[in-house]
Design a protein that fits this description.
The chain has helices at residues 6-19, 49-61, 66-77, 126-143, 146-150, 152-165, 196-212, 220-241, 245-252, 304-312, 318-330, 332-335, 350-357, 378-387, 391-407, 431-445, and strands spanning 21-24, 27-31, 47-48, 98-100, 112-114, 242-244, 287-289, 292-294, 297-299, 302-303, 344-345, 414-415, 421-422. The protein is mainly α. The strands form six sheets. It has a three-stranded antiparallel sheet. It binds alpha-D-glucopyranose.
């Protein structure tokens, strides 16, 4: 690989980001997910709410907030497009997974949203509304434009979302219950129930909403519920999702079939479900938040984004945050490998792959969501590393990845145990790959930039 300077790499990343900007009525409104013309799935031309987040943070850091403002308004305006199935009530709190803007020369055209009714597998984009609220706060932090959050439309939008997300359904814990594939992992992957990433986003949203919702009599009940749920969720995740050697020992010796209030093993998790790979894998002084928790079920896989967001939002305690970073340091070869960063570790294979993914050929072991490596997570890793004072890890990750990402034309993901191969069905020119590198670089160069994503501690 020819050596290339950091400014040249960043120029190339910016060229991709700028080319990906989508406009509506002449105004920048979002970014396309990828610019690879050879891609089969047409929805990569659309603006995905979750994909836009790192791009938006780059625009905010660069003093270009207009596109973020337009995006926030666009998403709100699309809310009514959600189709309602017969016999269902309209729940306005959901926000779309993605939207498409009409071609510039189509004066009559209107933007159209996909709430999952078109997406592969008809998946529910539960994370979108949470990202929207979190991004709104970043926008306000940078611009001081509180009026936007206080506008009738935005207040109403937040209320709809909180009403829906805090509504009692069939939960038996403070964690939020969702169907499979409701967040970044938007294919069947055994991530139904109470996946960590959703809990981290919920926590981030609840903290944020308390700042942004006006303390009117109308909001009193919601604000009080936000606060309580945020506190109970935080304690629950910190205790029950946490896994280190001590906790592993406790689970290893769990008694099962306990009835009643004082049960230590309240979810009835059988020690026999501890996977073999974990024996000897966890170094001392390290730990992580497990991927999912349900009845008789602890998903021991490590999901990077959920852990990193838990650090960024302050859902993990300071000590836990340090231990998570210790784990990345000690298990660098497996979790970061050649190209960052494992979305989930380890991969599921054999029969387990068959019944976890529904024999999904895109999610074969060590590919895509099933143990593939996602450079779009770089920004969250760099942010979490800086927040925990681990600058050397942040530098190491970025230095290691930048040249190859540029050389490989900004792929969406990598395959292989060490992330050595460009993903078999990976797009090139994937926008959030480029923006994750720019944002990671901003965080490192200008520590103040991290303020756009500062954790809120109540
Ligand atoms: C894939 C990813 C999803 C992303 C989308 C667009 O479906 O799993 O998280 O939003 O591609 O890049």
């Amino acid at each position: 690989m020819t050596s290339i300077s950091t400014p040249e790499i960043l120029d190339s990343a910016y060229a991709l980001l700028d080319a990906a900007v989508l406009t509506y009525k002449g105004e920048p409104t979002g970014t396309a997910a990828a610019l690879d013309e050879t891609v089969a799935a047409p929805n990569y031309e659309e603006c995905f709410v979750r994909d836009f987040v790192p791009s938006a943070l780059v625009f905010l850091c660069d003093g270009k907030p207009e596109i973020v403002r337009n995006f926030l308004k666009m998403v709100v305006s699309l809310r009514n497009q959600q189709s309602v199935m017969e016999g269902h009530e309209r729940a306005l709190g959901l926000m779309p997974a993605s939207f498409r803007v009409p071609a510039e020369d189509d004066a009559e055209g209107k933007p159209t949203a996909d709430f999952g009714e078109l997406a592969i597998g008809r998946v529910a984009p539960v994370d979108s509304a949470m990202w929207w609220v979190i991004l709104l706060r970043s926008y306000i932090l940078v611009t001081g434009d509180v009026a936007l959050a206080h506008s009738k439309e935005f207040q109403e939008s937040m209320r709809y979302t909180l009403d829906l997300y805090l509504k009692e359904s069939f939960e038996t814990s403070p964690a939020m219950l969702v169907p499979d594939a409701s967040f970044m992992i938007d294919r069947r992957m055994g991530v139904y129930g109470h996946p960590l990433e959703i809990q981290a986003l919920l926590y981030g949203m609840l903290c944020t909403a308390q700042e942004l919702l006006l303390p009117t009599p109308e909001n009193e009940r919601l604000l009080s519920n936000c606060k309580k749920r945020m506190q109970t969720l935080r304690s629950y995740v910190r205790i029950y999702y946490w896994l280190d050697l001590q906790r592993l020992n406790e689970i290893h010796r769990f008694r099962a079939e306990e009835f009643g209030k004082d049960a230590a093993n309240h979810l009835n998790i059988y020690p026999e479900t501890i996977p073999e790979w974990i024996d000897g894998w966890l170094p001392p002084e390290s730990g992580y938040l497990v991927g999912n928790l349900g009845v008789g079920r602890m998903d021991f896989r490590l999901f990077s984004f959920g852990n990193l967001l838990s650090i960024l939002f302050g859902l993990a305690t300071d000590e836990q945050a340090q231990q998570i970073m210790n784990l990345y340091e000690a298990r660098w070869e497996e979790l970061v490998g050649v190209m960052p960063l494992k979305i989930a570790y380890p991969a599921v294979d054999g029969d387990k792959w068959r019944y976890t993914t529904g024999s999904d050929p895109k999610n074969v072991p060590w590919s895509y969501h099933n143990g593939g490596s996602w450079p779009c997570l770089i920004w969250a890793f760099v942010g979490a590393a800086l927040r925990t004072g681990r600058h050397e890890l942040a530098h190491k990750m970025l230095n290691q990845a930048m040249t190859r990402l540029h050389h490989d034309n900004w792929p969406e993901y990598y395959d292989g145990k060490k992330g050595n191969l460009i993903g078999r069905r990976s797009n090139m020119k994937q926008t959030w790959t480029a923006s994750a590198v720019i944002l990671g670089h901003h965080f490192l160069e200008k520590p103040d930039a991290l303020a756009v994503f500062e954790s809120i501690n109540f």
